[in-house]
Amino acid sequence: MKYYLIVGEASGDLHASNLMRALRQEDPEAEFRFFGGDLMAAVGGTQVKHYRELAYMGFIPVLLHLRTIFRNMRECRQDIVRWAPDVVILVDYPGFNLKIASYVKKHTKIPVYYYISPKIWAWKEYRIKQIKRDVDELFSILPFEVEFFAGHHYPVHYVGNPCVDAVDAFRRDHPENFRRFVADNGLSGKPVIALLAGSRKQEIKDNLPMMLKAAAPFTGKYELVLAGAPGVDPDYYARYTTGKVPVKVIFGQTYRLLQHAQAALVTSGTATLETALFRVPQVVCYYTPVGKLIAFLRRHILKVKYISLVNLVAGKEIISELVADTMTVKNLHFELDSVLYSNAHRNGMMEEYERMIRILGPAGASKTAARRMVELLRSPI
Length: 381
Description:
Blueprint lengths: L1 E5 L3 H17 L4 E6 L1 H6 L2 E5 L8 H6 L1 H18 L3 E5 L2 H14 L4 E4 L12 H7 L2 E4 L3 H7 L6 E2 L3 H12 L4 H8 L6 E5 L4 H15 L7 E6 L5 H8 L5 E5 L2 H7 E6 L3 H8 L4 E5 L4 H10 L8 H6 L6 E3 L5 H13 L1 H18 L4 H14 L3
Parallel strand pairs: 1-2, 1-4, 2-3, 4-5, 5-6, 6-7, 8-9, 8-11, 9-10, 11-12, 12-13
Helix pairs in contact: 1-18, 4-5, 5-6, 10-11, 10-16
């Protein structure tokens, strides 16, 4: 069968590539065509566009690139119709993907599957109408989403979380070797504090300077190591890392960094879940300009109590979240000190991590999703 996949960022590239491998196991004749990244290209098939040509974040960048965005969307629609796949598989990235779903549903008979649901439980809940209308099957990777969508009379498939798969596979294939990690990256050998400042330039600009200031007092005993995001040039990081605070930037080694970190400062997103799966104590930090306004909107518009996936899956606050007006250097320093030096705090976080991981379920999300997709596609209508 022919599978057309669309992703819009690095995490989608990772999870879609694993899904593609699993689909090929279920369907040896699988053909792939996609808007995606390097990991998907490594699996095989035809890459129509790289996700870096799609990803624009924030009102101004989107406004400045409207012509490009519309052109990409038009090209995607035309390419789908021309190739006529057996299914279109959308991976997160709702701003683009839901528009593609609407077009495919209206103008073709091609089924639309969504893998990694849009987070409409957090905000933009009105999108449920469009999902029910345009998405034939939704494959959820967060257990609490099942109840949310059931409340809207829209059954979904919970397949487990692909981050569990990815982290398990990495730990299985890469035994811990701190000495080798230090040697490969020219580190000092001190215990490591990991900095995960986001995958987009705006996130890095907003968060990294405060992370560095808050962590600076700990550099006598610890080494700061920053995970470089794919697609972000080293020169961009140099704007923020060539100051008084010593920090090492490494690329393509986020999991390896987490494997050897004693603590981590992490922006919200999938990275919080991955950090927990590596059992690394963490503080979630996400600064935004006009913080008081954002805090107000968060209290009155967001439908959830937490922003980190760890706390959302756990159903309680097990890691501290410093967001908008609470994201200050002082608060971040205090929370980092707690995860580094308070045994009670660290041990309590580790116990809650284990409970949260049990809720997520065992590895095998990609295989479960692929098997179910192929079964549905092969079943008589």
